[in-house]
């Protein structure tokens, strides 16, 4: 599950779950879709930002494999297809988005983090991990497109996807996967994300224009997701 709270100009989306792994099962996926729909409807006029957080050891530990074990092929396909809608909604939001990754982000959890405009990590704890090569699972088309869009270096993509490398914060910065990892606690990551969120929200960009520029910046993943771009000319504030 998740919660969505509005604090001034910031939407705070918090992943929650009884197992503290915040796995992407049907309940969390539905909750994310509902929360992102609320942000989309409330923030079109700009002056806002979204921050996604989670508490504990994990930011998100990927798809809910235990739930899918009784009928792995059907249920895994269901989760993958449902999560496609989450990524579409996230990449269409009319606000800047920030992932405060204060714990492990594995598989779908890393995909969720990379769907944000900015990713902040802890320096002392947590890693990024795409487990598919170790679990013998191929990548969905939109996940592969996201990795090509958000991880710029071919060597970095190779190590993440073909070696199943567990990447810690400072190394993730060097590899160009995350923006910053200069924080030593969960609280400091969230505080940094809030500061960044306020700075971005203060710009009061036109939300519809912001979303369209994001789509144009990542045409491959947006094309795979079926997100159609449009031209907007809004009144200038300059």
TrEMBL record:
Any GO CC annotation of this UniProt entry: peroxisome
Pathway: Lipid metabolism; fatty acid beta-oxidation
Catalyzed reaction equations: a (3E)-enoyl-CoA = a 4-saturated (2E)-enoyl-CoA; a (3Z)-enoyl-CoA = a 4-saturated (2E)-enoyl-CoA
InterPro entries named among the record's database cross-references: ClpP/crotonase-like_dom_sf (IPR029045), Enoyl-CoA_hydra/iso (IPR001753)
A biological-process GO annotation: fatty acid beta-oxidation
Keyword Signal: no
Gene Ontology molecular function: delta(3)-delta(2)-enoyl-CoA isomerase activity
Keywords linked to the UniProt accession: Lipid metabolism
Superkingdom field: Eukaryota
EC assignment: 5.3.3.8
PANTHER family assigned to the protein according to its UniProt record, in alphabetical order: ENOYL-COA HYDRATASE-RELATED, ENOYL-COA HYDRATASE_ISOMERASE FAMILY PROTEIN
Assigned protein family: Belongs to the enoyl-CoA hydratase/isomerase family.
Name of the featured protein: Delta(3)-Delta(2)-enoyl-CoA isomerase
């Amino acid at each position: 599950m998740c919660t969505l709270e509005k604090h001034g100009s910031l939407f705070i989306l918090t992943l929650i779950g009884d197992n503290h792994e915040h796995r992407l099962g049907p309940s969390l996926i539905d909750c994310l879709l509902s929360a992102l729909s609320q942000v989309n409807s409330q923030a079109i006029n700009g002056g806002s930002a979204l921050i996604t957080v989670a508490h504990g050891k994990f930011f998100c530990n990927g798809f809910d494999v235990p739930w899918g074990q009784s009928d792995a092929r059907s249920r895994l396909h269901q989760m993958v297809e449902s999560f496609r809608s989450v990524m579409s909604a996230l990449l269409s939001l009319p606000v800047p988005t920030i992932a405060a990754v204060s714990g492990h982000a594995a598989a779908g959890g890393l995909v969720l983090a990379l769907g944000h405009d900015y990713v902040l990590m802890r320096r002392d704890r947590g890693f990024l991990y795409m487990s598919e090569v170790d679990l013998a699972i191929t990548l969905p088309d939109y996940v592969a497109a996201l990795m090509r869009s958000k991880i710029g270096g071919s060597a970095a993509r190779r190590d993440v996807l073909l070696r199943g490398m567990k990447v810690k914060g400072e190394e993730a910065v060097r590899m160009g996967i995350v923006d910053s990892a200069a924080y030593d606690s969960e609280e400091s990551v969230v505080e940094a994300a809030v500061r960044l969120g306020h700075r971005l929200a203060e710009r009061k960009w036109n939300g519809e224009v912001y979303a369209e520029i994001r789509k144009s910046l990542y045409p491959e993943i947006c094309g795979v997701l079926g997100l159609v771009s449009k031209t907007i000319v809004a009144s200038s504030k300059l």
